[in-house]
Design goal:
Length: about 300
């Protein structure tokens, strides 16, 4: 190697004498790097993964990357970066990309992220409850009335509407970034039709199949609890007295930005996937159109 940085032998492809960490050895001391320390050695929480990948070698890693791409294509996993695009742009839309090298976080770091995301989500829930309720934040000047009322996403007709649960914000998502000097930061919060859960679960499914030994030999935080929590939350927001609520997943359609997300969540939850044209409002409630009949809808997940 000509970089002047010694890469531990355990992370070298012994057949080709190429290290999987070669790209990190040059100039790593001057940038924030998730995988290696300044001296080129893997961070402690990365060590088992780095060793496993190095044992595979570069050629095998490339082969498995191709297998990942084939599985994602077979499952129809796509993400259309142009919301509301027409059929032409969707047909040539972007396939979902999955890096064969996972993102690894130590448990202590994830606990801190989790606490921060929970705290900010609780704040958003309180704000949402207030602006559709007493509007004390508007009354004391914290939120200017002109800003709230001019926002096209503010639903005036929902003023005074409350879910039968303590929390009004049921599902949310947070975009995060790790910075060199300030650690993990929240870039944005998504509270209206947030997406990402289905892609995360698909990533796990594919990785566990392509790297079975590496995946099952690592301490991976499971995602099954999310599905159980979401199903429980959907039942909890049903109207009072409804023991077996009728729940649907509302999607803009197959050409929407995250059509795969909607279809996957509906399939995993066992809920019908519907579009606006499948629903109608009559007699003070929402109904699902079916062949020759209609079915009452108690909860809509979008």
């Amino acid at each position: 190697m000509s970089t002047g940085t010694e890469i531990p032998g355990a992370f070298r492809d012994t057949e080709s004498e190429r290290s999987l960490l070669d790209p990190y050895a040059l100039g790593v001391a001057n940038r924030c790097d998730e995988l290696v320390e300044a001296d080129g050695r893997p961070r402690a929480h990365w060590d088992p993964i780095a060793r496993g990948l190095d044992r595979l070698g570069i050629d095998e890693l490339h082969r498995r990357r191709g297998e990942i791409e084939r599985l994602l294509e077979r499952d129809g996993v796509t993400y259309n970066a142009a919301p509301g695009s027409h059929r032409e742009s969707y047909a040539g839309g972007r396939s979902w990309l999955l890096d064969p090298v996972p993102m690894v976080l130590p448990w202590s770091q994830w606990e801190r992220i989790e606490r921060g995301v929970k705290q900010r989500t609780e704040l958003l829930d309180l704000i949402m409850t207030d602006i559709y309720g007493s509007r004390s934040l508007v009354g004391d000047g914290s939120i200017p009335a002109s800003v709230l009322l001019s926002d096209p996403q503010f639903l005036r007709g929902c003023h005074g509407v409350r879910l039968p649960t303590p929390r009004q914000l049921v599902v949310s998502a947070t975009d995060l970034v790790n910075t060199a000097d300030r650690g993990w930061l929240a870039l944005s919060h998504r509270t209206q039709a947030p997406s990402g859960a289905a892609y995360a679960m698909e990533n796990r499914r594919v990785v566990s199949r392509v790297f079975p030994r590496l995946f099952h030999g690592s301490t991976v935080q499971r995602l099954a609890a999310y599905v159980r929590a979401l199903r429980s939350a959907m039942r909890a927001v049903a109207p009072a007295g409804v023991d077996d609520p009728s729940i649907v997943v509302l999607s803009p359609g197959p050409f929407s930005e995250t059509a795969f997300e909607h279809a996957s969540i509906a399939a995993q939850m066992g809920y019908p996937l519907v579009q606006g044209s499948d629903l109608r409002v009559s007699d003070g409630r929402v109904w699902l159109r079916t062949v020759g009949d209609r079915v009452p809808v108690d909860v809509i997940l979008r």
